[in-house]
């Protein structure tokens, strides 16, 4: 049975609905919002960073059109450059099951990190902001480190294992 995707919480998206490039790009932009103020990177900044990273050129207007759904058929070169920029497989943009898997993995890692931080009494918003920029694996590592530090400070020999879905 398919688990409900984290994206299904967004207005108008159901778990098995076909996802658009605009919806997938919006999710990635929300994940990469600057810590503390939830600002997404500007299209101009993204275009410059993508060009520097991959050599693929985008105009800020083209990125805006992709994000708003006004352009719906980007080239594979553009999708590959976007995927590399956001650290996801190119199939994130071409296969809805892969997109949902990436989204669900990110959601699970975020919830695990939030739970570990709450258990450790970490409530500093700036710390949460810095940690949200981590990959799912980075979030899991941070959650594990928090659990280990808490266990050491409490004098237990073995840190508690995190619940895994």
Automatic annotation (TrEMBL):
InterPro entries (alphabetical): Cro/C1-type_HTH, Lambda_DNA-bd_dom_sf
Domain (HTH cro/C1-type): residue spans on this chain: 59-93
MF (Gene Ontology): DNA binding
Protein name as catalogued: Putative cytoplasmic protein
